[in-house]
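Reply to dn_fold:

You asked what the input looked like. This is it:
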Amino acid sequence: MKNLFKLLFLSIVLTIVTNCSSTKTKSQEKTILKPDFASDEEVYVPHLKSERKTFFKGTPAEDKWVDSVYFEMPFNERVGQLFMVAAYSNKDTIHFNALDKLIKNYKIGGLIFFQGGPVRQARLTNRFQSHAKIPLFIGNDAEWGLSMRLDSTYRFPWNMTLGAIKDLKLIEKVGVQMGKESKRMGIQFNFAPVLDINTNPLNPIIGNRSFGEDKKNVTDRAIALMNGVQSQGVFSTGKHFPGHGDTATDSHHTLPTVSFSKERIENVELYPYKRMFDEGLESVMVAHLNVPSLEPRENYPTSISYAVVTDLLQKELGFEGLIFTDALNMKGAANFKKPGDIDLEAFLAGNDILLFPENVPVAVDKITDAYQCGIISEDRLAQSVKKILHYKYKAGLNKYHPIDTKNLINDINPIANTSLQYELFENAITVLKNKHDILPIKDLEQKIAYVKLGDDTNTTFVSTIKKYTDVTEVTADNIDTLNVRLQKFDWVIVGFHKSDKAWKKHDFTETELTWLNEIAKNNKVILDVFAKPYSLLPVKSFDDIESVVITYQNGDVAQEVSAELLFGAIEAKGKLPVSINDFFHVNDGLTTENLHRLGFSTPENVGMSSDKLAGIEVLAKKAIDGKMAPGMQVLVARKGKVIYQKAFGYHTYDNILKVKNTDIYDIASVSKMVGTLPNVMQQYDKGKLNLDTKLGDMVHQFKESDKKDIPFKDFMSHYARLQPWIPFYKETLDSLKMPMDKYYKKVMTDGFTKQVAQDLFIRDDYQDTIMAKIVNSKLLDKKEYKYSDFTFIILKKYLEHTTGEKLDALAASHFFKPLGMSNTLYNPLQKFDINTIPPTEIDNYFRHSVIQGYVHDMEAAMEGGVGGHAGLFSNSMDLAKMMQLYLNKGAYGNRTYFSPQTFDTFNTCYFCAEGNRRGLGFDKPQLGKEGPTCGCVSMSSFGHTGFTGTMAWADPESEIIFIFLSNRTFPDSTAPNKLSKENIREDIQKVIQEAILRQ
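and this is what came back:
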């Protein structure tokens, strides 16, 4: 009966603790289910010890060194080796001096570093090592890299995120990087990986630190991580033995209970340890747990249990590596015995290293007394101390070298980390629901809203989804107002953003759960969760949510990659590492289609060098400092990934408005290739044009002219003897060079609806006059390459007559909208604020105003801002989409716009033998020394430049896209073109080519 009351009391206490550890309501908690392991019958049969792998094989030299050192050590030095003391590089000299004293007087064997910074820690390590007679072990909790404890270091994903990744080679790469960084920091022990199988969704301390709830998945990933770490000569420490994954309390604050039978623990909790021992795990950390089935004494911590540490871990499981206690200052142990007593009990239990002792002098005295009383034998002491010395030899501490702090920060933060981070999230992000295959979002002409839930940053996610199409951020003070504002949208992306810090809560608030429910009832919703999967536990139903995506974390790379997945730049690969009640189960994860839209990554992931590309910034600065342009955008993409996108300088030389990547520039003649040419290619693809089509058959005004027989191939190659340009605007000015009233009005009126500039409208029929002047213009005497705007002015006329649509509408409906080029348009002031558009000129010869938001080209302005040869405004990201479509030979976003054969036809130089480099509408690399490129791209490359200081170029052989946008014409377009004379665009292109990493 007494036992019955005890069990009842314990269950009540456990229930209270569980309730206190969660912010969920009782109604929510009813839905939270633990995974069922009753059917998990897989039993692992360990290898013979002789068959176990080892990363650090012993040698006779090692044995000799250990024996000689041990023999020379006095008793107090041997005892000192058992202690690994806590060190903080962010504390003061009092702390540092205390550690000096412990090292000098008590000959402690190691330090475990906690909070601080890498350079400070390295300097302290050197200092402390200089005081040590036998070099110290340096340990660090680096479960997701050094950043778990140190500032200015790289943070890899949590284990829960890695648990979603199926490609174990990627996880091994994480281990390799962690090992390299630990090695560089003079660290011998990384207290990772966590081997806890998180079978309790409400576990307050493990959670994200676990690879998941499935024992095989956890073990596979732990082995991969360990292999990487130990391949670099750093020891991995599996923790928290025998298993902290199904606890309801935190051993930092109390003693958690694991109430399973030994059979269950053998089958589940010990499974990873058995396999890891066979795979070469070098050390284990023992947790502070109450496990009645393993230790019969009531509430007796496993960390000081002989039955657990010696009988189970060493004898039954045959582990021969180093054994650490968990930190002895944790309340799970410290509440049980006083400092000194707890250390002695831990050593008697069979631990080798006593981690984070609270009082070393007292502990040394206790162990000394026990030794003198015969409680601790010489053999027992030698067993641990010699094992410690063996590992110091394996770590190279027999030949210790101080840490070189030069370039330390750069060395532990290599670009390889970020490159790997992209790969990790590309493989981790998990799609759990995808009703009607709505993901990826295919139709970019739909109206899409974004609503933020959660209290952390969302900047990168929002800016990235807006790179794919127009997305409107919608907010409101109450849910009713919000739903009214959402009514006009086809889709609502709900992003749940929580802190990317492991110890922060990731729960939905009650208000957020209500809002999510109401939004989903009234809208088609894509829910993207930038938090641990367990945050979904209180969601009572997913019926009204069309798509559920788990991104796991809220860092910049995670946000960017998640946006890629939503819009089809990558496919979904991740598998859920834990269960979410009965809704989603471990290993759930849908695949989605890769639409091959442009994505984002690092240069190294596409075979290029970040260091080399840094040269772009030098050239941009040179241009700005030299007054060649007040500002610019530069973008580089390769193999379908944008790897460099930066904005430099200001809109004008007064340095008020900084250039942003989202600003839009007048792209001048690049308009030919972006707005007009793709529509002409569609007509060719439909068979309405061929290489021999005569100009007179294309545009009826030319039927009776001397230009009627110009063939399409010559016409498009600037090989048709057309005049290069006529200053049409001059005939509309009076003697004072002011716009004449017969041609212009200051306000829009009937017959004067085409806007040329602010407060200036030209008569609607003047474009007929322009076309007549072109028709009647004199052909050049000699047939040779001569660049002419007439070609594309005429093509506009052809397209509008053939399709029945105006060019601006045609380009938007056929290309810009379906491609997601939502920042590309003619007459941008109809949509965008003027402060997002850098000005191109202070015009004192025609329009007599600052030209900002109106096309710079005079003829295009006289056509109301829509010219076949000029008029488009765009930014670097939008232009990259069009160039990628060309690289894909007419396809983008799983849609074909024209055939590969048509692209090849237009990207051919038909008159190279005659000295004409041009393709059909495309510019091509120079045939001699001078031309539009660096002279270092392939002859199959193509692109165009623009008068305002723009360039868009693509190379099929290297798969590189280069975009350069500027307003070099500001403030005076008639000034010498220093940007061109100094070859800034060409030199940047050369830097890009030189950044290709040769295999």
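The chain is about 35% helix and 15% strand.
Hope that clears it up.
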